[in-house]
Structure formats: structure tokens, C-alpha cells
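May I ask for whichever protein you like with its C-alpha cells?
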Amino acid sequence: MSTALLLVEDDQAIAQFLQRALAADGRYQLEWQASGATAQVALRQRRNHGKQPYAAVLLDLGLPDRDGLELVPWFRKESPETVLMILSARGQEADKVQALQSGADDYLTKPFTLAELLARLHAHLRRSGVSLQQGPLQVGNWTLADQTRCLHIGEREISLTSKEYQLMRVLLRNAGAVLPHQRILSAVWGPAHADQTHYLRIYMQKLREKIEPDPNQPQYLTTEVGVGYRLVIASDLTDPLQKP
């Protein structure tokens, strides 16, 4: 089951990016509220409906209805077990000190990388006892296992490196869809690397060498020229590595 997080952020582009990136990670379900008032309602409704509290709240300070710093003690009182992380463009020491003294667990200054956000989030959740185990991701008879970082296609087992695993997870979660270079790079390497397509070419070639019968004529990890890549899984879902 995915770990529930709450993002309080009025910038739609940032919110949608984080929702896609955390969904691609496979461990999280990120709910989004654009104001302090709606965030308060969401937290109370979750509790009133008997659901587990959010594992973490990611809170922007520049909200349209109030200063996010005002919400820090409220969130800490209402949900003391929830990890509270500030994501803000404000880099002044006074804001950081006030947020942390009011009950925030961490403070990230924008712009930050996705890798840094995930690393800090994972560390806080581990300390709070939240399990971050990803379940296997399955599409047809293609299965990606978290613990072993192996891709199973039928009975074939393919060992992946950490980055190959992250890349394959994004592709499998979006099987059949064209994924732009920037979206893949942001999800795997972080938004700071969104234009560095050479990373992606190198790792796509590595995956093709492990998966494709002929890496030079890919059938499954296809290139959409000038746009990105697509994972194509045949309708009969046969093992592409089993040659007749």
C-alpha cells in the first residue's frame, strides 16, 4: 500500500511535478491542497474518516491565504506523529529557525533536487517507523521487484543497477505511453538534470542490451524521435528474450 503524503503548495506546476515524481517512485500517494484552509480540512477529514494520518506533510510557506509559518504549530498539534517538512523559496535563517522551533522536522530551500527531497523524506519516515517497502510492480508478465532490483519477464530474471531499476520503474508505470525526455530525467535524476539527455541515452542503451533480442533494433524500449521513449509490451506479453 502506498504511503499517504499531503502537499500544501499553491504553485500548480510544482505540485503536478511532485505528484508525478512520487507516483513514479512507487511508494507514495501524494495528495495536494493549494491553500492552508483546504489543507486543514483535508487533515481533519482524514482523521474523522478513521484513516491513518498522513505520514508526512510537505508545506510551502508562500500560501495565498496565510503565511505557512502560521500552520506549523497547528499541524504539529493536530498530527504530532506526522513528519512536517517545509519546502520554501525563503532562505533566510530567521524563517528556518522559526519553522524548526515551531515544530517542523526539516526545511528545504527551493530550488532543491528531487533526490535530496526523497533522501530527507526517507530518513525522516524511517526514524518515525514508517515502512517504505515498495511492492512489486507488474504489467502483464513483466514484474519489477523492489528488494532484489530484478526485472522478471515470464521466467526470465534480469538484474538491474539502482539507476536502471529507477528508470525501468518509471517506464513500467507508464507502459504504452510516450514519456518525454525531461519527464524521465526529472523523475530519475531530479529536475536539475532535466536537460541532460546524454544520461538517458546511456541508460536506455544499457537496458536495451539486457532486455532486447537485438538492442540495435529495439522492439520494447522504443525511441520517439525528438520527444522521448515508450515501453511497448506486446499484446501476447511473451518474453522478448526467449528466442524461437
